[in-house]
Each structure stands twice: as structure tokens, then as C-alpha cells.
Amino acid sequence: MSKARVYTDVNVLRPKEYWDYEALTVQWGVQQYITLSSVCYGTSVYCLFFIFLRNDRKIMFCKSGQTRSWDYEALTIRWGEQDDYEVVRKVGRGKYSEVFEGINVNNNEKCIIKILKPVKKKKIKREIKILQNLCGGPNIVKLLDIVRDQHSKTPSLIFEYVNNTDFKVLYPTLTDYDIRYYIYELLKALDYCHSQGIMHRDVKPHNVMIDHELRKLRLIDWGLAEFYHPGKEYNVRVASRYFKGPELLVDLQDYDYSLDMWSLGCMFAGMIFRKEPFFYGHDNHDQLVKIAKVLGTDSLNSYLNKYRIELDPQLEALVGRHSRKPWSKFINADNQHLVSPEAIDFLDKLLRYDHQDRLTAREAMAHPYFLQVRAAENSRPRAQ
């Protein structure tokens, strides 16, 4: 059995309410219809109207001294007087949601409106519970409100607005120091969520919002996040293909926080080598092939033997045999200014087949690659 090297028993030591999200009770309150902007999806006849919810009870998204904060099934959402929101424009979509820039018409403040597609209530409860538990953590996107469509009963999550620049536009402009700075900021979010017993399970550039002017980063989309329990077997159908750890691709189910560190490594490799995505598989089997062509098959076989994993014969044939490719092979005239020896060392300690050999988020923050960033942070005057 595989167990996390750090924060192993966070949820074991906490009361059940902390992680049992299925006990969450959602009290929607009395609905009042407000005429706001309609949202239609292309040729679909599915249109939503945002509503305004009123109730004499208040919702608490950040609550100190919570107990049993993994117990998302027991969570009760209590509603106070809700603001109304207007959709401004669509900014993204995913398998489980449609995302819009919106505005709070009471104070004209921008926000992000995430309309959840029809999914099991359990999944919605889990996301809300996790966002509650992480509220106020460093570089974690803030959940501001929840509203529900009057007709479809589809809930929408209201988040803080981040003036994000698309990573395909932003990343090619980043300096060496910029990359160090933003990866360090992302590590703060990952170490915090891991310390709270939560795996993100979908780390990728699309889920890292960066306001470059303010140098502000937020880790978003906690829809696939899950509470870590040692020895528990998890679904391997998580993360996006290019960022899936080897453990997912070989069906190792008792994975842990280290999955997020592989995904971070893929993201980091794409940034410093200016090769996005770094591992470009056409399907899950091909994704493992692409990894094997870089990391080699000798260490893959050692990994499989250690955890007593047998590959599907078809996948084994596809993977074949490959020697390890030196990281220096990816350096060229366009990226050499980003690829320092300490960057290579940092990357090498993240992209390891064996999840137990990868740096933890806390260990990663202490790596020499971030020496300048830590020095700059320590020299800044602290808020009183």
C-alpha cells in the first residue's frame, strides 16, 4: 500500500465533519425571480437566468474553528440576502461547468460566475466543502456566493475576479524571474491545500489564473479536488491528459498529493522549454509512451515492479523500450535563457515516475531555484 510522505493523517485526525461532504444539506431559501441577462450556449436551447435568493439566514463561506470539515455530505448551506449578478461575457468552459465574467449590480464589482452542468449532488457538495475549508488560504480563489437558477435548479458559484491573461499569450513573455516567482506562488497554494488534507487533481495552466500587472496568482477549479485518506483507492480518471501522473496512466489508485507535483512539473517544463504541452499524448496510452520516451523505460519498469503493477499487454507493447533523454536535449536558442542548472535540477526532482520520490510542495519551495524569490519576499516589509 502506498501512503503520502507528508500530511498523511490530516483527515484521520480531524472529526468527520471536516471531510464528509455527502452529509451537506443545501438550504436554498425562498427564490425571487429577477430579470437579468440570459445565458444561451450556442445552438443549444438551454438558457439560464440568474436569480436573486432571499432568506433570513446567512451563508458562511469562511468559518473559523470548523469541525469535521471533510464531511461534505453533512454540510448545510444557509442563505442570507443574496446580491444579483449579470453575465458580461463567457470566459471558459469545461466538462463540468461554463464560466462567465459577471458583475455584481449592487456595487458594480466584477466577479466570475461558474455555472455547474448537471452533475451528481455529491460532486457539488464536495467542491463547496473544499472551497469552504480552503477559504483564506494563500493564492486559493475565493468563493464569494452561491446562487441557483430558478427553472433548472442548477447552482452557480460566484468567485472573486482575476484579470487573467491567457497562458498561451502570457507564458512566452515571461522572464526567468517571472517563472520562478509564479511557480513559487503556485507552490504556496499547493502546500496549503495539501496541509489541509486536499488533493487538487487538476493542476494545469488553464486552472492557474495570473493577473500579471498585479503579479497575482490564483489556483482555481476545485471541481476534481478530493480529501486524502491514507490507503483509500481513488478514481484514476482525473486531471487533464497532458498533466496526468504516471500513477493514473498505470491504474495505481492509492495515489496522494504527489499527483499534483507531477502536474506542476509538466507545467513547469512547458514554461522553461517553451513547449506546451510538454508531454503531448493523443490518448492516455500514448501519454505514457510520450513520458517513457523522455524518462526512459528502465525507471518505469522499476516503478511498476515496486508497486507490483502489471501493464495491459497492449499498453506494454506500445510503450516499448526507450533510453532516458537528457534534459539538455530540450534546450535551444529560444529557451536557453530560462533553463538554468537549478531549473533542470528542480524539474528532475518533480518529474519522477515514483510518486514517493517527487518533491513535496514544501520541499519544492525550499529548492535553490527559488533563492531569489525567497530573498525578495523576506526583504519586503511585513504588514502590521
TrEMBL record:
Gene3D superfamilies assigned: Phosphorylase Kinase, domain 1, Transferase(Phosphotransferase) domain 1
Q: Which Pfam families match?
A: Pkinase
Please give the catalytic activity noted in the UniProt record. Answer: L-seryl-[protein] + ATP = O-phospho-L-seryl-[protein] + ADP + H(+); L-threonyl-[protein] + ATP = O-phospho-L-threonyl-[protein] + ADP + H(+)
What's a single GO CC term here?
A: protein kinase CK2 complex
Q: Which Gene Ontology MF annotations are present?
A: ATP binding; protein serine kinase activity; protein serine/threonine kinase activity
Output the superkingdom of the source species: Eukaryota
For the protein in the UniProt heading, the enzyme class is: transferase
Q: What Enzyme Commission number(s) does the record list for this chain?
A: 2.7.11.1
Q: Name one GO biological process term.
A: regulation of cell cycle
Note the subunit structure: Monomer.
Function summary? Casein kinases are operationally defined by their preferential utilization of acidic proteins as substrates.
This protein is called: Casein kinase II subunit alpha
- State the organism of origin: Oryza sativa subsp. indica
